[in-house]
Design a protein that fits this description.
Order of helices and strands: HEHEHHEHEHHEHHEEE
Radius of gyration: 18 Å
Shape: globular
Structural class: alpha/beta
Distance between the termini: 11 Å
Length: 226
């Protein structure tokens, strides 16, 4: 897994190939912004394929660029990456996209999976709330009302694309916001009937599955390069 910056470099493929030789059972994937495409010929030359590729799409073109890139190039890069994804992923591999919810893109939840599944670009679509670490992101963190706007769409897209759309929460703070949206009685009932797995608690709320990954129990799953 490439992480910390998420800009693929040519020498990263050397590491991927080395890991593949030493641990052929290990699944190798990439979280990217679409700029991996500049190395697509190198993938072909080596005959190397990923087991999974995830490229974030944070809303419509306007929302994505406002959230990620003031120069307005990020959305086009992400979509180019998704349209070329099958060229670098194994036949049984997974192509997915993640949308990080903020106050800027909360009205766009239905639009993104309609586009991605409509063009057959992804196998899965993941939605999560933002866990801001840097002060510039504090201003776009979702309020309860923003989450209310997003939640009404989340439950609909889950029914439209069953077993292909997933909603994840990592902070208790965001679980509390969701309780304000669905009602505390509904949240209490969901907690009573929740299913627990390693590092994950799955809640059923208004017909939608919510996966809560408490930071205190979530196992480390990344190998940091760079």
């Amino acid at each position: 897994l490439l992480h910390e910056g998420r800009i693929l470099q040519k020498w990263h493929l050397d590491i991927f190939e080395m890991v593949r030789r030493v641990r052929p059972d290990m699944r190798l994937g990439l979280i990217d912004n679409g700029t991996y495409v500049r190395h697509i010929d190198e993938f072909a030359r080596r005959g190397f394929r990923l087991d999974w590729l995830d490229i974030s799409v944070d809303g419509t073109e306007a929302s994505h660029n406002k959230q990620r890139d003031p120069l307005g190039r990020a959305y086009a890069q992400a979509m180019d990456g998704l349209r070329n994804a099958r060229r670098v992923v194994t036949a049984r591999g997974r192509v997915s996209s993640l949308m990080t919810l903020t106050s800027l893109n909360c009205p766009d939840v239905e639009t993104v999976p309609d586009t991605l599944f409509g063009e057959h670009l992804v196998d899965q679509f993941h939605i999560t709330t933002m866990s801001p670490k840097l002060s510039p992101n504090f201003d776009i963190e979702m309020s309860v009302e923003d989450l209310r706007v997003a939640w009404s769409q989340i439950s609909r897209v889950m029914s439209m694309f069953p077993n292909k759309v997933f909603f994840r929460i990592y902070r208790t703070k965001d679980l509390e916001k969701l309780a304000h949206v669905v009602g505390f009685d509904a949240m209490r009932q969901a907690v009573r009937t929740a299913r627990a797995d390693i590092g994950r608690i799955e809640l059923q709320l208004e017909g939608a599955a919510v996966s809560f990954f408490p930071n205190s129990t979530w196992p480390q799953e990344t190998v940091l390069i760079d």
